[in-house]
Amino acid sequence: MSTFLTMEFAGTVGADRSGPYDLLRDAATTTEWVRGHAADLGVAPDFTASEELREQTVRLRQAVRALLARAIAPAPPSGADAADLPGFAESLTLVNATALAAPTAPQLTWTGEPALTTVPAVKASTSARLRGRLATAAVVFLAGPGRTLLRTCGAPRCVLYFVKEHPRQEWCSPACGNRARAARHYREHKK
């Protein structure tokens, strides 16, 4: 679950044929995204996000994306927001602090290789618990074996991270693979 939820959360910002998108662009779209993941996030199906929750969730997303970028280094980070990502230390602190609101709080330590420890969580609001679960999923993923399979999609205009499921996988989806092959064909035959 942590891999799925982390990739879904990090993928709330991206690009498609019509351009860049942000699935957490306002309280209404944040509400829709959270309701679609209500079981994983431990919220009621009628959950409604406030603007404050949206802002805090976007800040957490940027921190998670910064840690994903660090995990794939020295490969380049996703082009979606690489210039806007917070620093590594700030991101690690935010993700760990946010995870404290989950029922149990895994904490990520990163001296050499990432490692996972668990501490008791503090009592928190629904909003904090929701973000705590998102942070917990990221911590568990980044400290686990799936981190070594994390990649940035190299297709034109794609800005997603993905977990490599096959040795020959280069893109996050077949559609991105098709787009990359079409762009390569165009470049080769444009001359």
UniProtKB/TrEMBL annotation:
The record's annotation in SUPFAM superfamilies points to:
Jann2411-like (SSF160904)
Q: Cross-referenced Gene3D superfamilies, in alphabetical order?
A: Jann2411-like domain
Looking at the record, the residues that make up the Zinc finger CGNR domain are 150-187
Q: Give the InterPro entries listed for this entry.
A: ABATE, ABATE_dom_sf, Znf_CGNR
Q: What is this protein called?
A: CGNR zinc finger domain-containing protein
Organism in which the protein naturally occurs: Nonomuraea spiralis
